[in-house]
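## retry 2 of 3
previous attempt timed out at serialization; input unchanged, resubmitting
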Amino acid sequence: MLHTWQLQDAKAKFSDVVRLAASEGPQVVTCRGVETAVVLSMADYRRLEASRPSLVDYLLAGPKLDDEAVAAIGQRPADCGREIEL
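## retry succeeded, writing output
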């Protein structure tokens, strides 16, 4: 169960926040009523990190380009921009 802490309470009882994150799950910290941060156990953090793909895997999973799209990209003009007088 998520427990919400106001920032000043979380600072004053940080050891309790960490202990509850380890035993009961993520602890939400609010600042002026806005959810601002979450304290996670190391096990929860590692589980989240393990499920996140690497940048290379993410890019390789993108849309595949057919030959026509690759040819269209290759035909773009190599415009160097305009000259500016300084």
